[in-house]
Amino acid sequence: MLLVVGGAGYIGSHTVKHLIEQNQECVIVDNLVSGNQAAVENLYNSALINNPKSQAPHFEKVDLADCLALAKIFKKHQISAVIHFAAYAYVGESVTNPRKYYLNNVVGTLNLLNAMLDAGVNKIVFSSSCATYGNPQYTPLDEKHLQNPINPYGQTKLIIEKMLTDYRVAYGLKYIALRYFNAAGADKNAQIGESHNPETHLIPLVLEAILQRTAADKKPKSVVKIFGTDYDTPDGTCIRDYIAVDDLALAHYLALEQLDNFSGCLNLGTGIGTSVKRVIAVAEEVTGQACPVEYAPRRVGDPPILLASNKMAQEVLGWTPKTIDIRDIIRTAWNWQLNRKF
Q1: What are the tens digits of pLDDT across the range 14-61?
Q2: Which of 88, 101, 133, 153 is catalytic?
Q3: For the segment 139-167, what is each residue's pLDDT rounded down to a tens digit?
Q4: Is the pLDDT of residue 217 over 70?
Q5: What is the three-class DSSP state of 138?
Q6: Active site residue 153
Q7: pTM of the shown model
Q8: What confidence tier does 218 reach under pLDDT thresholds 50, 70, 90?
Q9: By CB neighbour count within 10 A (0-12 exposed, 13-18 middle, 19+ buried), where does 35 fall?
Q10: Which DSSP string do the residues of 266-292 spell out, in sequence order?
Q11: Which long-range contacts (CB under 8 A, 24 or more apart) does 312-316 make?
């Protein structure tokens, strides 16, 4: 049985859906601070569409700060491996309230690793981030790039990567840390998708602005801000590497299968860049509606271009992203927005 910590969140719920479709029995642990109870309910229905023999995931509302509750979960269920998504992930908030991030992300992970150690579970796939690299010295970024985070969120992810390495050396922990770039899109059945409060990611912000404008007789309720139009890029706006959330889910499944053969960190991205203006233009094409925008000064710390080299993930996991056209990614996100229930 697999333990998916943070399995009610955006990427976690999509990964659980994929695991269910592969006949994997899962236990979801989530404190529901950022995760959604509705996602847990809907993802099972979504998985059933592709696999009628799917088993419903178990759910335990537990915080990683509760060491006693964690220990009980490992005693209650026969856990073979862990996938760890549970983290606070707002960069700006991490700067203004680092205490919250170090307690939840770092101390919470330490509690999880110790609970695994005490229960004799030695396999984990960890949700890391390209934020561990900081400002890129070159692009596409590979795993050899210097790691120098520029915010507490990135620092917490890097500290956890180092913890995993230390536990591997001392206790034989088998781990793979997956460094995401820009997760995007939604379940192709529109049963689950991206639902953050507050929302900070570009694609859902654009689609929400379009949807609100359409629903309000074309009077915009929200405006998408474009931060900086004078970058050294073809259209002057930042370029990012958007990866379909279903491709991320597949990578976690493949990582589980390779834990006996490899321990270390891997980038997950497409290597294809899309600018802010291009995202908005494609969203307008997909929806047939205009997106209200507002231009603003650059944000501190935003690099002009951020792309991933996924060569190592291809070699280690046999993984290549299946959805690389930004139109297809945005189309799944739009279908989710139109059909969302939470």
Answers
A1: 999 999 989 899 999 999 998 888 888 887 676 777 777 777 889 999
A2: 153
A3: 999 999 999 999 999 999 999 999 999 99
A4: no
A5: coil
A6: yes
A7: 0.94
A8: low
A9: buried
A10: EEE--S-EEEHHHHHHHHHHHHTSPPP
A11: 312/142, 312/143, 312/266, 312/267, 313/178, 313/251, 313/266, 313/267, 313/268, 316/176, 316/258, 316/261, 316/262, 316/266
Q: Cα–Cα distance between 309 and 8 in angstroms, integer?
A: 29
In contact, 10 and 243? CB cutoff 8 Å: no
CATH 3.40.50.720 for domain 2-186+242-269, yes or no, is: yes
Residue 224 contacts residue 292 (beta carbons within 8 Å) = yes
Report the distance separating Cα 19 and Cα 81, nearest Å: 13
With tokens 């958007």, the residue in question is: 242
Give the C-alpha separation, 6 to 22, whole Å: 19
- 3-class DSSP assignment, residue 166: helix
Residue 315, Cβ neighbours under 10 Å: how many? Answer: 11
